[in-house]
């Protein structure tokens, strides 16, 4: 650049001086940087083999995880199969609840039947006593036997009426049991459906157990990887520190 006049030279001169000072300051800077690179190069040479040891470690870990992933997928499928099973079982229980209600109604219906039958027997007992008296009376006196039989006849009529009341009672109970029987059959079918569900769930657990074992193995494989990586970093930092004239404090 050509300086036109003295005023320009006066203005530009300090700039040149500052620039020269910059260059003078920059030169040792470049020397330090070159030294830094020279120190860093062997460091990288040490770190590279270290990473070469770390890489297969990570590859094994990745393979381990790749084995674990399908294991989890199988377990998820297993649980997805088990979910409808639980729904079926819930339906079973919902079906069985009315069955129990019907059976309770059966018992409630049958209880009065038993009471009626007990009353029948209680009514019939005096009838038998009267008949026995009739027979005892018949031997000595036929004339007394006729009034005795006349007393026995209404007694039998009462007993017949009693049995007539009991008969529909038994019919109701039989109908009740007939309603309960298919109910029990449905419940049995439910349980039969649920049994394979339990088998599937057991299979799920059996499938998941190796998954956990594989994952534990993965972690066990990965632990040394972390140790190697840590050793790589520590070794590299130590070399840089020593190359710079520092010291490593004893642990």
Helix amount: over 70%
Strand % is under 5%
Largest sheet: none
Low-confidence segments, given as residue ranges, are: 247-251
Mean of the pLDDT scores?
Answer: 74
Transmembrane segments: 12-41, 53-79, 86-110, 116-138, 198-223
Keywords: Membrane, Transmembrane, Transmembrane helix
Can you describe what's shown?
The protein is 94% helix and 0% strand. It has a domain of 169 residues. It is built from two helices and no strands. By secondary structure, the protein is mainly α. α1 runs antiparallel to α2. The C terminus is likely disordered.
Topology:
Blueprint: H1 6-138, H2 142-243
Keywords: Membrane, Transmembrane, Transmembrane helix
List its salient traits.
251 residues, rod-shaped, single chain, mainly alpha
